[in-house]
Amino acid sequence: MNGKNKSFRVGFASYFNANHAFSFWKARVALYALFKTIGVGPGDEIILPGYTCVMDVNPIKYVGAKPIYVDIEPDTFNMNVELLEEKITPNTKVILAQHTYGYVCDIEKIIEIAEKNNIAVIEDCCLSLGSKYKGRLAGTFGKAAYFSFQWNKPFTTGLGGMAITNDSELADKIKRLCEEQIIQPSFKEKAMLSAQLAVYRTFIYPRTTALAQSLFRWLTKKGIVVGSSATCEFEPVMMDDFFKGMSYVQSKSGIGQLRKLEQNINHRKEMAALYDTLLSEKGWRVREYDTQAMDPVMVRYPVRITEKEKALEQAASAGVELGSWFECPLHPIETPMTVYDYEMGMCPEAEKAAKEVVNLPLHPRANKKTAKRTVEFITKYTQAK
Ligand SMILES: Cc1ncc(COP(=O)(O)O)c(C=O)c1O
Questions:
Q1: Which of 62, 91, 115, 251 could disulfide-link 8, Cβ–Cβ 3.0 to 4.6 Å?
Q2: Chain mean pLDDT for the chain
Q3: According to the per-residue pLDDT averaged within each range, which of 12-21, 309-318, 324-333 is highest?
Q4: Nearest residue (CA) to ligand 1, atom 12
Q5: CATH number for the segment(s) 3-181
Q6: Residue 70 pairs with which residues in a beta bridge?
Q7: How far is it, in rounded angstroms, from Cα 241 to Cα 83?
């Protein structure tokens, strides 16, 4: 633990008015710590949307529990709460309430159902830093919440994760678990991460992102950069050095990012509103969500198109930054999804979204010109209904 780390945790907790914050090497490690301390184990079931990152599912498998997938509703890509109750069994231990792309899920209803059935709710805020529901920040509804600072998240420390909670008993358990078991990133990992952060800052611009991304993927496979996920993380087997804490370089970067958070949020909101305007001028259907209740801070702006693969290919060569997550219900899995208990057909809306959705940049380096270019590009394709 270092001074920077404490300042980052304290600053992050205070943004949420949370009593406790714990920092980790990645968000998936934070989720694992939450499962361990909530007491999730073999035979337990964890309910989550079938439109997620497989790195959310790994910790479920690591503790011996079973993921149970709920389909999404098509406008906000969040768990369809109408389908939630039928998935609950006496073994359900946790509902993972993921706020997708920045849209807040139907968190009040989820909490109501969870309380009725004595189930814990963990909020996945990896894509929704700063989003609000009825004036309250996403991440302050459940027993705990966790966040990612990986490079394409709302803000980045290269890699990184944080868990927050107001539950003192849970916080004591996380503190003890970390004291007993957490390991520090190696010197090599820290050095590589510092270099990566410098490269991100220098090279990641809307016109170069696709190129940089392919390069990073290649370098990760070769073990030259730390990467968001090692190849072995595409299988549900926990690595010996998985349970890692946050390094000095991540904490230092996090403090800087926190200072710019309001600016970052305002930028994202302005950019999303600009996409709404530009897309609707072209006759495209734009974001649809409950504007009375929700005040989303989008991490990316999702749109549905009919020729996703072709658009991604052409965007890369045209220097247009198009994101493609989630590419499948458990993004970006390379192994068969059945090892994660997902059978094709389980979540039809999620599977449809995975085939259709591309996402447009909103990050601090995207500007009005980026939005115009991106909309010009994307509206050459056909919007999927
Ligand atoms: C919704 C969601 N949850 C969790 C994670 C895991 O975050 P991390 O890469 O920091 O472990 C991701 C990663 O991309 C994600 O998209």
A1: 251
A2: 93
A3: 12-21
A4: 53
A5: 3.40.640.10
A6: 49
A7: 37
Q: CATH 3.40.640.10 residue ranges in the chain?
A: 3-181
The pTM assigned to this predicted structure is: 0.94
Residues of the chain with CATH 3.90.1150.10: 261-378
Crossing angle, helix 248-259 and helix 3-16, to 10 degrees? Answer: 40
According to CATH, the superfamily of the domain at 261-378 is: Aspartate Aminotransferase, domain 1 (3.90.1150.10)
- Whole-number Cα distances in Å, 94 to 229, 285, 322: 25, 35, 33
Residue 28: which residues within 8 A CB-CB, separation 6 or more?
A: 55, 56, 58, 59, 161
| DSSP conformational letter for 73 | P
Q: How far is the CA of 310 from the centre of ligand 1 (A)?
A: 26
Place of tokens 């696709």: 210
Q: Does residue 182 contact residue 245 with C-beta atoms inside 8 Å?
A: yes
Ligand 1 pocket list (CB less than 6 A): 26-28, 52-53, 55-56, 98, 124, 126-127, 148, 150, 161, 228
Name which of 118, 97, 100 is nearest 109 in CA terms. Answer: 97
CA dist 171 and 185 (Å) reads 23
Q: Cα separation of 109 and 21, whole Å?
A: 26
Is the bond into 332 cis (omega within 30 degrees of 0)? yes
Q: In sequence order, what are the residues at sequence separation of 6 or more whose Cβ sits closer than 8 angstroms to the Cβ of residue 294?
A: 103, 104, 131, 132, 133
Cα 153 from Cα 236, distance rounded (Å): 23
Residue 371 has φ and ψ, to the nearest 5°, of: -60, -45
Query: How is residue 259 written in tokens?
Result: 């200072």
pLDDT band at 221 (very low <50, low <70, confident <90, very high): low
Stretch 245-260: mean pLDDT, rounded?
96
Query: Residue 227: helix, strand or coil by DSSP?
Result: coil
Residue 226 has pLDDT above 80, yes or no: no
Paired with 77 in beta bridges are: none
Question: Does the structure show a pLDDT above 90 at 220?
Answer: no
Q: Which tokens hold the place of 280?
A: 């609707």
Q: Which atom of ligand 1 is nearest to the CA of 29?
A: 11
